[in-house]
Here is the input.
Amino acid sequence: MNNFIVRTITAIIFVAVIVASFLRAETMVLLFALVTGLTIWEFSGLVNDRPQVTVNRMITTVAGVYLFFAMAGFCSELTPSAVFIPYLITLVYLMVAELYLKHEDPINDWAYTMMTQLYIALPFSLLNALAFHLTPENEVVYDPVLPLCMFVFLWINDAGAYICGSLLGKHKLFPRISPGKSWEGSIGGGILVMLVAYFIPSMLDHFSLLTLNFSPLQWSGLGLVIVVFGTWGDLIESLFKRTLGIKDSGNVLPGHGGMLDRFDSSLLAIPAAVVYIYTLLYI
Here is the structure.
């Protein structure tokens, strides 16, 4: 019971902080820059425990946080594209440095170093592509609706999948990696998200928050994309933990594990949502 209370309190605070951060662009950028840094630091620490792996935690973490800030500046048109040059120089340095460090397996170092950027830094930085977009008047505005809806869809999917899985779950979705997930739960969570997404335009219009001219079906499509890729993101992190032989990625969040445990779904859902939305906008 005590663990349940701790998990509940942590979940309430976690959701409240995420939602509140989207009220202003500055708080969103600062919070998720911090999340990016903590997640990379956690991931690099876990892989450094593997034999013959030496990732420079400090430089990879700083590089990932810088990429997030650079993307925020570029997407909001506060900085030119040249802002990415220091980041690219850092990646080159991390590659060249292995020539002089004389580590036992530089290929492993390269692979895990670049994985911190591809798996964590890049997806989080793309959150800015959801938060900042052009208006019909060709002006860049901060719009918290899309990134916030993405997280809400993931939370609804988790709740729906848990309820449907508990009541109806008989067929395992991926027993080798995550034996607790069922097809019934995943389908139930997905249907719930698509139903909620379908009514998003009318709710946004009612509160005068409608900024993108997406139809209810297009919103439902976005919900489906987020559910599918969010589920894959969850499974990928489960495979990562099983490979390392650990239960949780960390203990930053009491009762909920580490940063990877809380943001695993979004690491694939964010890039997928960006591709889906920009495809609708520009094709």
Observations:
- Strands lie at 132-134, 140-142, 172-174, 178-182.
- The longest strand covers residues 178-182.
